[in-house]
Amino acid sequence: MEFITKKQSAVSRTSLAILTAWMFFLLCYISRVEPSVIANELMESFGITASRFGLVSSCLYITYVAMQIPTGVLLDKYGPRAIISIGAITSAVAVYLFGSAQSILQLQLGRLLLGVATASGFIGCTKLINELIHPKKYALFVGLTMFMGCIGGICGSAPTAWMVARVGWRETTFVIAGLGVLISALAFFCMPSFKSSPRGEKNAGNMLDGLRILAKNYRYWALGILCAISYLPITAVAELWGVPFMEKKFALSTANAALSSIFIFVGYGIGSICTPCLARCWNSCKKVLLIFTVLTILVFLPIICVDSLSFRQCIFLLFLFGVFGGTVPLFFTMAYNMVPSQYGGSSSGFTNMLNMSGAIIFQPLLGGLLDYFRSRYGDPANPDGTPIYTLAMYNNAFSVVCWCMALSVLLLLFIKDVRRQEISS
After folding, report:
1. Which CATH number fits domain 15-192+206-424: 3.20.20.70, 1.20.1250.20, 1.10.10.60, 3.30.70.100?
2. Which of 85, 91, 160, 304 has the highest Cβ tally under 10 A?
3. Are 31 and 156 in contact (CB under 8 A)?
């Protein structure tokens, strides 16, 4: 009986620790997605174009990507408790700085600091999973982590838009900052402190050994780049440009247009859980990646090419766009199996660095394409000088997503498949 009680207590502590890490990752997503529902307010308040707005939003990813490898190494050395606690309180400061901004520079500084703060969001979760969960369940729990991030994306879209419409975007941002303070306290008191590996594995004498293993493996770099392309449904569409696109396509309010992001995130969360299960059943990651990438292209093409789509049809296609795009857990699991498990933080950090580089490129790229096509249409503007972006401009800009997905299909043909034990890890 005493043994059962101790085992139940250990399970409860593990569950609480993972739930706290998931809460932080959820908050990271809310903070990342928030600019998509206040895009019009920011462009009007600060008098900026789509290109400049895309650059402001992508500032987060510059520091986020730059901090992935250092954060992964720090996670391997100090453990998730310290790093996530610091990350959560720092995110609160960053969000408050963004919400109180009186200039474009302050907006950019807030996003840059938020990138540093949220760098431990996803890889902190994967490191904690690596320490507390059996390796055979790693892929599933990474998928569940992505699902929690998608819930954060949902909370950062329509619910945030609803709150912005009632209390204002600055006040909404301050509430998000308060949640960061709360999660920081929870992480400090609820997470275990790992002074050594719980599985009895020897820690590396040199923290950079894992990075050397990764950097020398060309297959690892290829996986990271493909992972970035597979994440475009989230970084390029759901997190930023999807909401203004739906506003133009169906003449919706921001709150109603944000429903599109919700369905992408829901689909992506479901896909993130289903893809590891399918890969395990089929004994092939490559087959799942190829099929799902092709299907992602096929469901996105009608969204940008067929003007006669009804709102419900478009929402359904966006949901499938998210489901078929949910292949990221497979890339992280394949990368995880390329290094010893004590370098799990470095592995996740390196992969996520390459993965999130796509946001740095594509968020401002799509903004730039919008401005380019606007210039081709005679630079339309409102009487107050605010630029006008038509549906045709969005359709043309979004076509780059399909081209990149098509390129990834070709690259996947040259990627070596993984063995069953790699899928199960």
Report:
1. 1.20.1250.20
2. 91
3. yes
